[in-house]
Amino acid sequence: MADLWLRGGMTRSAALEPLSHDHHEGLAFAARLRRARRDGDDPVPLVAEVAAFWRDHLVPHFADEEAFVLPVLEDGAAPLAAQMVEEHRQIRALVERVAAEAPTWGGPLGEVADALAAHIRFEEREAFPAAERLADADALARIGHQIHDTHSHR
User: Three-state DSSP class for 45?
Assistant: First the structure.
């Protein structure tokens, strides 16, 4: 892998760098929710923030992962592919519950931060490294161009 970059002690191919950058934004959002929960902030305004983060960040991010990373995992690491899709489904369900239920920290609003952070850790530590091992250099280059193209149109 010629194009590697260092992030917190982890190497990541340049092809997947935009997705890892999205993950950084996701972790920052999860940390914000955790701080608000810890500090006992009013959860009502955060419902709109969760909806906006879902719409503006997670929907396109999940679409990119499922279009470009998932096929690689399905061919050589099917359990990781299944976990990725299931965690995307679980996060989507939590976001839908946040919109539908009364906003309390004891409900789905309180769970979103933990689910999102755990999912990002799984992808960065397991799914992405597996995809990088499974894809050859040409495939990674194609994936990288596709991901960069979709990110440039956001």
Answer: helix
